[in-house]
Amino acid sequence: MPDSVTAFGPASLSNLGPGFDALGLCVTGLGDHVEAWRTDAPGVTIEGPPSIPTDPEKNTAGRAALHVLRTSGAEGGVGLRIEKGVPLGSGVGGSAASAVAGAWAANAVLGSPFDKPGLVDAVLEGEFAASGSYHGDNVLPALFGGLVLTSPSDPRAYRRLALPEAPPIAVIVPHVEVLTRQARAVLPGTVPHKDASAQAAELAFLLAALLEGDWAEVGTHLMRDRLAEPHRATLVPVYRAVKAAALDAGAAGCALTGSGPAMFAIPSDGADADAILTAMVDASREGAIDAHGWVAEVDTEGVRTI
Questions:
Q1: Phi then psi for 76, rounded to 5 degrees?
Q2: Which of 52, 116, 196, 208 has its CA 20 to 30 A from that of 45?
Q3: What are the respective helix, strand and coil percentages of the chain, to the nearest 5?
Q4: What's the topology of domain 4-163+300-305?
Q5: 5-48 pLDDT, tens per residue?
Q6: Residue 210: CB partners within 8 Å, gap ≥ 6?
Q7: Count of CB atoms situated within 10 Å of the CB of 233
Q8: Sequence ranges of the domains in the chain
């Protein structure tokens, strides 16, 4: 077994419009690094920036690593050193990136007793540390790579979907923090039947377009969420301006990712993702909110050792 292992946990986009808590996509451009090593003392110890908890039960990487350690039956413990590359509260899977990297690094330093499907429970435990509930729409894409469909009621039920070659994706993060718990609090407890049925249809159309590689249709349907985005958009003051700028610059569609404030845009055929990104960042700054962004590709590998 290696003395130490460093894992890379990539960023991810989630919901993708009408796929609330059900659909996620692993992307390039950002990620967390977690180094793991064996310790004589039992349990998990954590080193990292002051912005993250060092109690492993409250830390996404720590809780995921604890699950791996306990289920493996290994003696002793695991130390973790976390380097955040994905900002927390950004909407691009900051907690998930740490969770998958923590699980993967701990698993590797223990001799890799589990394959990726065997780490599903561990990464879901990690996500629980961030949100207080089990959600798979960021951690499962970050674990497996690519596009993943998961059940909101039972995230251990999932499917990794084969995605045709995708265009580059413009991703922007306005400098506004939106925590997952805060974003869930603004959602209504119930929705009208007509909205629920329309949402189901939109998700079906979106999935069909994704699997067929029809990116113009993807753009159309990712803007038809009725359950979450209309409420969460109020937490991002520049939401409307950024979305309008993306569409004016040639995007086929633009939406929040996860809880926000991050937003992403799919280019139309022939449109320039870099130009769309510039327009989105400029719109945010014109609204007095600084922002940064990047042009991402689909990450088909997911968490990995580096």
A1: 75, -155
A2: 116
A3: 35, 25, 40
A4: Ribosomal Protein S5; domain 2 (3.30.230)
A5: 999 999 999 999 999 999 999 999 999 999 999 999 999 999 99
A6: 147, 161, 163, 218
A7: 19
A8: 4-163+300-305, 169-296
